[in-house]
Amino acid sequence: MKAVFWAALVLSAATSIAQSQPSQPAATGEAAQAATVSPDQLAGIQHAFEQRFPGIQAEAVRPTPFDGLYEVQVGLDLVYTDAQAQFVLQGSLIDARARRDLTAERLEALQQVAFDSLPLHDAIKQVKGSGAREVAVFEDPNCGYCKQLHKTLESIDDITVYTFLYPILSPDSRTRSRNIWCADQPAQVWRDWMVHGKQPAVAECETPLQSNLALGRKLNVQGTPALFFADGSRINGAMPLAVLQEKFDTLTP
């Protein structure tokens, strides 16, 4: 019975996220608690949490609308604790009155990345048509879903794709990434490999692969493809053509 009630509550909250804007009462409650908690208090909760769990670094601690409950960010994950870090809760925090999944909203916000902050000079650039719609993608050359994505992209006009080579899947991923990056025309060699299966020739040069791996870890890229759009949103995994086209259409000025 409890499981059925909780599932219904989460489903209701998820539906409301898609259909409505946050309600004012919940936002007011959150602001009220935030006003009563000082930065020193939040730092103290963070210290207590890290003392309680050695080796785990809390990126940030923030108040929630629930008085006495605090959001702890660990990487791009969230848990909740009290002021003394005596109790820890993992799961969704639901605003039952407003039917909002507050945890899902916060996770979506944490996943956002300012597109202009990405080091695009370390990516392979492919332009089609006007190139007005931009996307950055972390990809492994041995990723089947990445190859599927590129075949889908063949049907979309006026895009610029920045590919961060992200060799994580197999031992030869790094070698193949190097050969592609160091080619005379890396964009063409990359497309030939991903779309047509044409093996890249051996090539040697300095590559940004190590910095790409560090960037991916910072952004919590755990698999490929991982797509970052100009509006700051991200999607993990390949998408059907209709879904991808709809996403790009929302980004069209």
Characterization of this structure:
This protein is of the alpha+beta class and 253 residues long. It folds into 2 domains: 2-111, Nuclear Transport Factor 2, Chain: A (Roll), CATH 3.10.450.70; 115-251, 3-Layer(aba) Sandwich (Glutaredoxin), CATH 3.40.30. The protein is 42% helix and 18% strand. It has helices at 2-19, 24-36, 39-52, 102-111, 144-153, 173-181, 186-196, 209-218, 241-251; strands at residues 60-63, 70-74, 77-81, 88-89, 94-95, 100-101, 124-128, 133-139, 159-165, 226-229, 234-236. The strands form 3 sheets. It has a 5-stranded mixed β-sheet with strand order 7-9-8-10-11. A hairpin with a 4-residue loop joins β10 (226-229) and β11.
What is shown here, in short?
With 253 residues, the protein is an alpha+beta fold. It contains nine helices and eleven strands.
Blueprint (SSEs and pairs):
Elements (H helix, E strand, L loop, with lengths): L1 H18 L4 H13 L2 H14 L7 E4 L6 E5 L2 E5 L6 E2 L4 E2 L4 E2 H10 L12 E5 L4 E7 L4 H10 L5 E7 L7 H9 L4 H11 L12 H10 L7 E4 L4 E3 L4 H11 L2
